[in-house]
Amino acid sequence: MAMPIIVNVDVMMARRKMSLTELAEKVDLTLANLSILKTGKAKAIRFNTLEALCRALDCQPGDLLEYIPQTESH
């Protein structure tokens, strides 16, 4: 089952016209870890990483994270 938290890092990167490499350098993350976050495969995010992303992308945490409730099929 997919997690109901959607990570919109790719959306904010596109709005800021920032490459993955550039963002990785600004937030001091490896390309691999940033890619995992960007593709929604991450299971968690540290607050200091979230803060660094918000600073680098000039946005709020709510711009990066979205909650989409899952509907249960019976």
TrEMBL record:
Family matches, as PROSITE patterns: HTH_CROC1
Residues annotated as domain HTH cro/C1-type: 15-64
Gene3D superfamilies with a match to the protein in the record: lambda repressor-like DNA-binding domains
Pfam families: HTH_26 (PF13443)
InterPro entries referenced in this protein's UniProt entry, alphabetically: Cro/C1-type_HTH, Lambda_DNA-bd_dom_sf
Organism superkingdom: Bacteria
A GO term, aspect molecular function: DNA binding
SMART domains (alphabetical): HTH_XRE
Name recorded for this polypeptide: Transcriptional regulator, XRE family
Organism: Spirosoma linguale (strain ATCC 33905 / DSM 74 / LMG 10896 / Claus 1)
